[in-house]
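note to self — DONT lose this again. spent like an hour looking for the file last time. sequence + predicted structure for the chain T wanted, 91 res
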Amino acid sequence: MTFEELKTAFTTAAILIHFNQEQLTSLKADTLMHALDALIFQLDPEEKMHLITFYSWKFNSTKLNYNIYDKKMLAIVDLLKHYHNLFEELE
């Protein structure tokens, strides 16, 4: 593959899209032993899922002791707190 083909492939692929309140939104939160990640996806008009944003962080020493269910709930709550501005005006 030539440099021009690579440049075109990277600049035309929709990697991240802007949040659209009219589109179906999906949240995904995942926890590991020492960290968690949270993702927000939306469907585009062609029914393909696109990443809107991602959020990850490492647990502090207190949160490392949480059980897995509490860590998963923490991921969901922190995701909604962090991106509350996206969801405030949704019906």
